[in-house]
Amino acid sequence: MKSVLNDKHFHDERAAYRFVEERVWPEGPICPHCGGVDRISPMKGKSTRIGTYKCYQCRRPFTVKVGTVFESSHVPMRHWLQAIFLIASSKKGISANQIHRTLGCTLKTAWFIGHRVREAMKVLGVVPMGGEGKVVEMDETYFGDKRVVTKRTKRGKSAHSSKRSVVALVERGGNVRTFHVDHADSLTVMNIVRENVKRESELHTDESRIYHYMPDLVRSHHTVIHSGQEYVRYEDDRTVHTNTVEGVFSVFKRGMKGVYQHCAEKHLHRYLVEFDFRYNNRVALGVNDLARADNLLKGVVGKRLTYRTAN
């Protein structure tokens, strides 16, 4: 059986550029400077960089890297493709240290590659999820430092904590959307639902008080009582649970604790994008590892992340 990593574009620089061009420019080269498509020719010559074209409308040279997350990077394109495949195919992620050892680059470069790839995973212009006959599950979780109790409720539970709050929406059988928020409170979750869930949807949550105002925002709101050991409730025409979103949090936490281990809060949103992308391009939706890496590669255009910005 042939290994996927034996493919030519993982080892040959010219093949790597052709592979990227086929996905970024499916209908042929486009000048990133003037947008021209007609008068473009590949540049030839012994000293010409691989993959260089010249636009004879604006008379400027360019490669497929311009205007993408690859721009100004000195990392070989074949190594970019190896990193993209490894990140896209690793369900719980792959650490910067592992990329550093695998590609033979510095740890600083591996860390930056990871963040640029996560930038490519970001989806722009999202539309509300759910709709008529669709079920959307919602839940919150807390991740990060140990809980520090600053105030106690009557039941003795912490009302405030130093943990980082993450709220997630999952369309059952569809996509996930997660948010790093300052505080998981009623106003925050109401705004998230208002902006990301269609009013015709059916919303399932647990019994937390922060979801008490959800009936005003969706067609119907159903809860499961986790405090009463209820995790699934069967009704006449529906199955009420939040097990799907709990499963999303399970993979996320195992990846963050077991693979990445240390994550500054300012970078948490980037890791959420990574786990969202892999879930939204999963095998259950007909997307295998190769297709997932291809989908990631199609998202590199129009996104730029400098080291100063990322750091």
Query: What order do the SSEs take from the amino end to the carboxyl end, as H and E?
Result: HEEEHHHEEEHEEEEHHHH
Main sheet?
5 strands, mixed
Strand arrangement, major sheet = 6-5-4-7-8
First-to-last CA distance: 42 Å
Number of strands: 10
Query: What is the top-level CATH class of the domain at 135-248?
Result: Alpha Beta
What proportion strand?
15-25%
Main structural class? alpha+beta
Description:
This protein has a domain at 135-248: Nucleotidyltransferase, domain 5. The protein contains nine helices and ten strands. The chain has helices at residues 13-24, 77-89, 96-103, 107-121, 186-196, 243-260, 268-280, 289-297, 307-310; strands at 40-42, 53-55, 60-62, 135-143, 164-171, 176-181, 202-206, 220-224, 232-234, 239-241. A hairpin with a 4-residue loop joins strand 9 (232-234) and strand 10 (239-241). Helix 2 (77-89) crosses helix 8 and helix 6 packs across helix 7. The longest helix is centred in the C-terminal third of the chain and has 18 residues, at 243-260. It starts with 12 loop residues before the first helix and ends with a helix. Mean pLDDT is 91; it is low at 146-151.
Blueprint (SSEs and pairs):
Layout: H1 13-24, E1 40-42, E2 53-55, E3 60-62, H2 77-89, H3 96-103, H4 107-121, E4 135-143, E5 164-171, E6 176-181, H5 186-196, E7 202-206, E8 220-224, E9 232-234, E10 239-241, H6 243-260, H7 268-280, H8 289-297, H9 307-310
Parallel strand pairs: 4-7, 7-8
Antiparallel strand pairs: 1-2, 2-3, 4-5, 5-6, 9-10
